[in-house]
Amino acid sequence: MIGYGDRARTQCEVVRLFRETHPDLPPLNQGTISKIEPQYREMGHVRKVPSKRQAVVDDDTKLNLLLALEENPITPARPTGQCGGKSNKFDTTEGFKS
């Protein structure tokens, strides 16, 4: 609907055209167009893109991790007493010891 080159439309024209083309959908406003237009110009679509901070893990990998954890539960990385002085000792059954 935005168009390219000489046939590019303003954001107001895009809003009007969308409302005329899709009267059954909730109306867009110019703020919505200004948010999605840069993504459309950069990527060529406005589909939701997965966040770069979160890794995409498929269901098979999740299941394999769960099965591996059930077979070999995670043990503490350090045995009791390696974290520092006496006040830092932690026993999973009794809590912190002094």
Automatic annotation (TrEMBL):
Residues 88-98 have a biased composition (Basic and acidic residues). Residues 74-98 are annotated as: Disordered. It comes from the Eukaryota. This is DUF4817 domain-containing protein. It comes from Aromia moschata. The lineage of its organism: Eukaryota, Metazoa, Ecdysozoa, Arthropoda, Hexapoda.
